[in-house]
Amino acid sequence: MARKILTEHINVPGIETFDVYRKQGGYTAVEKAIKTMTPEEVVEEAKKSGVRGRGGAGFPMGMKWGFLAKPEGVPRYLVCNADESEPGTFKDHHLMKSIPHLLIEGMIISSFALGANKSFIYVRGELMYVIRILEKAIAEAKAQGFLGKNILGSGYDLELVVQPGGGAYICGEETALLESLEGKRGNPRNKPPFPAVKGLYQSPTVVNNVESISNMPWIINNGGDAYAQIGIGRSTGTKLISASGHIQKPGVYEIELGVSVDEFLNSDEYCGGIRKGHHLKALVAGGSSVPILPANLITKTAAGEDRLMTYESLSDGGFATGTMLGSGGFIVFDETACIVRNTWNFSRFYHHESCGQCSPCREGTGWMEKVLHRIEHGHGSMHDIDLLVDISKKIEGNTICPLGDAAAWPVASAIRHFRDEFVWHITHPQEATAPGAVYMGEMALV
Amino acid sequence: MTESPNLVAFTPERLEQVKEIIARYPEGRQKSALLPVLHVAQEQWGWVSSEVMDYVAGLLNIQPVEVYEVATFYTMYHLDPVGKHVIEYCRTGPCCLMGGEDVYGHLKKKLGIEAGETTADGLFTLKEVECLAACGWGPVFQIREQFYMNLTNEKVDQIIEDLSK
């Protein structure tokens, strides 16, 4: 069995309560950090751990902490990004509802490290029931002296605020999240200035994902070096993977980074293989925005090496033959899935969620959805395929925030790897629009 | 703008809750309370009318337009009256892979309405939403804070019948 850092105690009955969490060793890391370490030493452990941003970007968390400006007399903020909205991703939802004190303990340690006295957990508004779980846990921690004034007699004060969003994928982008937290529309900000210099209320701010912060208790208890020994190379530690689609056992799994894609997909410890009687067609490994891969590039790289669940191995081959680990949203498609329909579905998502600030994204996502809709519904022309590629190129890299890229990549990669299927939809509109029809080489599976 | 500003008001309990929310933020940053307070408003009235938006603007000491632009940006706020139960049905890829489109078709037939409509008896409003972060438990819909997961036609029938009682 693989080591578990985040989910070791997740199935202990009553783990959502302070008492049970405490009995499993909870809050000892807060005691250790606040009583025996300086904030700088805590930051140093985060750096040594090599833990990378688990929301999708994969930027080293300790390094991000190191960028935080510390001008005299100006408050600093830590904001936890719990706006989990990337299609295929539901790990933070699972973690927060099951073991809320883990995130709270991580928030206390991280806030202490950064010198923040008021920190926020921004949770997507649809998870109001999770917000209530977190608020209850915060009240318990406060009653036990782990939050509020003079924590454990150290003189350090911290208030934790849980903030609900209002329904907007874009608020998972950190500057849009900060705008939203200030009570505004979620329009991403131009950078620079970066949040580390001017973030929430124009003050220095760090924004970290739920899973990233939840690693901190273990890192403090065991040391950053011990964390860095798990995993392979620059992919250190464990990762929560949200597995969905046509597999035997959908759910959230904690893996040691470096397990092979084949083992994750097919072993009974994880996904348990493709559902019975079917076979693998395609995979989106890191949430809807990362490039989709065809069956022959999933368990092996183009060079024929085993593909591993690491940042590096999944991106092996670049976008030509690789993809990204992203948020760990692992969406599996068997032969009954229609790539054109799914691509249209994803492009509708990005069109719906574009904030409308940048023209390439606002207009381009709308056109991609429209063109994909007509191909899927039997009204496409051959020119439409190149048109989609052209639109995706005009969005990519031309917007304030990465939503534009996130919208472009699924379309570009679907055409790159499944062009035949798009062509078939255009040349065989009647067959392609029959109920349940799916392209199977030159034939339709109905 | 309504001529009688007292027409719309939070219940005393909700007003206390709103004060507690405003107190969470640094002084002068009370606008941060806007999204949570709009959720409280929706709890009370079921939807967010322009009168309610004006009222919230007054409570937070901000311009009404600052509330309008937020209420219309975020998808959770209902800008028109809704039925007793608002079914927010996930239409995004992973749920569709699990048969979400078929179950959705069944649900629409069962209710006799399309997305954006309310049943004649005022019991159900149907809305399509994007990914609810529950992809491993799809198909999924949400009614207020409750998630209904691993939906099938039979489960949908049961849920609708239970809520119709």
From TrEMBL, chain A:
Catalytic activity: a quinone + NADH + 5 H(+)(in) = a quinol + NAD(+) + 4 H(+)(out)
Enzyme class: translocase
UniProt-listed Enzyme Commission number(s): 7.1.1.-
Cofactor annotation: [4Fe-4S] cluster; FMN
SMART domains, alphabetized: NADH_4Fe-4S (SM00928)
InterPro entries: NADH-UbQ_OxRdtase_51kDa_CS, NADH-UbQ_OxRdtase_suF, Nuo51_FMN-bd, Nuo51_FMN-bd_sf, Nuop51_4Fe4S-bd, Nuop51_4Fe4S-bd_sf, SLBB_dom
UniProt signal peptide: none
Role noted for this protein: NDH-1 shuttles electrons from NADH, via FMN and iron-sulfur (Fe-S) centers, to quinones in the respiratory chain.
Protein name per the record: NADH-quinone oxidoreductase subunit F
Species: Dyadobacter beijingensis
Gene that this sequence comes from: nuoF
Automatic annotation (TrEMBL), chain B:
Family annotation (Pfam families): 2Fe-2S_thioredx
Keywords in alphabetical order: 2Fe-2S, Iron, Iron-sulfur, Metal-binding
Domain of life per record: Bacteria
CDD domains tied to this protein: TRX_Fd_NuoE (cd03064)
InterPro entries: NuoE-like, NuoE_dom, NuoE_N, Thioredoxin-like_sf
Cofactor requirement: [2Fe-2S] cluster
Family to which this protein belongs: Belongs to the complex I 24 kDa subunit family.
Protein name: NADH dehydrogenase subunit E
Organism: Dyadobacter beijingensis
